[in-house]
Write a structure and sequence with these properties.
Layout lengths: L1 E5 L4 E6 L2 E6 L2 E6 L5 E5 L2 E6 L6 E5 L2 E6 L2 E6 L2 E3 L1
Parallel strand pairs: 1-9
Antiparallel strand pairs: 1-2, 3-4, 3-6, 5-8, 6-7, 7-10, 8-9
């Protein structure tokens, strides 16, 4: 599936991933290929994603919104704290 993570100032990541986990406002959740369409708000916490044959990436965010549709995951976050 295709993941795009942006802030109001920059594009943080864009590419194919195997899975992605998010800090939802009501609890964390994971998105895999062929996930049902959804929109969710994000709370403060770690976004984690796994590219094929690479280590898992962690990005600490302050909050935002995620939209999933047709194997494309669009994420708009307020603030990023990279590790």
């Amino acid at each position: 599936m295709f993941l795009e993570i942006v802030t109001p100032d920059e594009k943080v990541f864009e590419g194919e991933v195997l899975s992605a986990s998010f800090p939802g406002s009501d609890g964390s959740f994971q998105i895999l290929n062929n996930h049902a369409p959804m929109v969710s708000t994000l709370g403060k916490g770690d976004i984690r994603y796994q590219e094929e044959k690479k280590e898992e990436v962690h990005i600490l965010v302050e909050g935002g919104v995620v939209e999933v549709m047709n194997n494309k995951v669009n994420v708009l976050v307020e603030k990023i704290h990279s590790e």
